[in-house]
Amino acid sequence: MSNNTNASSGLKQKTVLALFLLTITTFVLGFFKFSNLGLETKRESKNKAVKNLSEGTKDSSQVSKKKVFGTIFFVTLLAFTLRFFDFGDLGMGNLFYAAAIRSMGESWHNFFYAAYDPLATIAVDKPPLALWLQVLTTKLFGFNAYGFIGPIALAGALATPLIFIGIYRWFGFGVATIAAVILAIFPESIATSRDSTMDTLLMFFSILSALTLIAAVENRPRLLLLWGLSLAVLFNIKFFEGLIFLPAAAIYIMVRWRTCFIEKIGLLLATGFIFVVFSMLWLLAVEFTAADARPLIMNDPNNSPLSLAFFYNGIERIFPTEVTVFQPIPGAPQYSAALQNIWGPAFGVGDSGPFRLFSGANGPLIGFTLLFGILGTLSILIAKRSLLNGPALFWLIWFVTGLILFSFSNRAPAHYIESFAPAIAVMGGLGIARGAGYFGAIRIVVIPLSILLLAIYGLWITEEYPLLRTRLLYALAIGIVLYLSIYVLRFFTSSRLTIPILAIFLFFPLLTSMWIISFTPRAQITVPNPVLFAGENFNSRSNSDGQSWRRVPAEKFISQLPANSTSQYKFGIDGINNAGEAIAFTGQPILPVWNQYRREIMLPPDAIAKLLEGGDLPYLMLSEGRIATGLLEDLMAVAQEYCGYDQKLSRGFKGWVILKCDK
To answer: In 23-100, which ranges are E strands?
Structure first.
């Protein structure tokens, strides 16, 4: 009876949420006064650059402050609601980062070196800046969603008003509003904001950096020095992922910045110096620390943070390469096929190609929203090239750079799209709010064709996801009713309220995001593309406690170990993610002895042997499946000399082999 009551209560709660979000979005989209937007004036200015820069200002001057503040408030409310709904149930999010954040809070040594485990044997494979912030919030709010994920979700929500304020001056009220709505409801950004990965925090700071650059080029050149510092911040959040807009910045500076050559060179050199110095401070400090005085660098064979930044988190992310963890396992075709067919798409990782971001589970999560940005890009390139004399040039090249890079790199998972999500929003805002108007008389063809293509594409990408196809039909119905209602209202009131007709398709990503926040299974590593679970082959799993899909019975195992043990580690376990789950939930010193990302032993064999021989690693907890498929052969070759099978302990842990190492 209680289960039925809870289910009924949950359904009622989600229904209220749906109505609330639809009301907010309807209000915002119906808030426009587009009497002159998107239309060409009869007399073209001789100086196109001046015209383009003043185009947004003219629009802005016609909009009351009350309307601007009202729109910012309601769009921000929409963003906060989508990111903080049922927030407490998110638990610790991605347990890979949760383990590092918890371990880093153990000591200043762990904090500085971004230790992955409490004894700082291994360092996490990312820079520390975002993790430092999350350590501080866990100290304030505890080991829960607010501590681990709170600053990430907050950054995602605040990015929405920031993008509005940042482009309002240059593109006007309509474009700013649509861009803010797109960013607020973007399904990929919603999924990433509700996780402890740092990509959304990077997205927020990339907007600040972009707006600083635009202000420097257009008005205040000395702000370029502050922009150099912002680049260093982005680099120390997630290395080169935050610098995807650099090609756009370089072209924008060359084309648009018309200042004294000597002053330009001087400022650029100073900016580059600031960037290099502040981005390298932590890396060089760790690089020149003796190897035995700091943790081992995860996922870098050279044990070098510089090598980690430039290769594992740099070159390997750009060029198409094999993703080891998703590759076939020799001698285990069925197991390998499951990895490729399920977990690869779940992470948004797959074969590179021009349609990678638009097909499969990536379609509803990313591709549908990308089409709005493509519409804006084509509108400018075909019908409104004069806009390229202003900040639109920067946003367009940033968008195109991200689109090309992530289409032809199969190494970057779905949440990396945050690195150019602001450009998607801005170009989408231009496409929806003004794109059709730029085509002049032929918009009578452009608009119906765009609607037809969007509808066909939406039906195609939801073919394998019936839950989302239903939402697509709802979105079309809601949008059409809204559009017709506002159109009819014009005949009965003096107000000229309207919305761009293409905005009706914004309801599909909104409803997809609502599905994501209602059902996103939690696991060791949060699935970046939860759309996969909208398919017919997946059953819903309870997410009521934020701890579904627990794999490692760490607490139970520790409770059965000798209480008076003086060993350095409680036990060792195969897999970084398995160790991450165990550390995140227990806070105990647990050593990952095998790295699934590279399919190799974690520490050098002699280091493992020394720990086993000295009694500092008294137990090994190993997966039966990995032993059976031969993945742990190198580890077993070392362990067999010092460890033996513990039948009693193994009997209590199905799927695990327990080795006691006391020979």
So the answer is: none
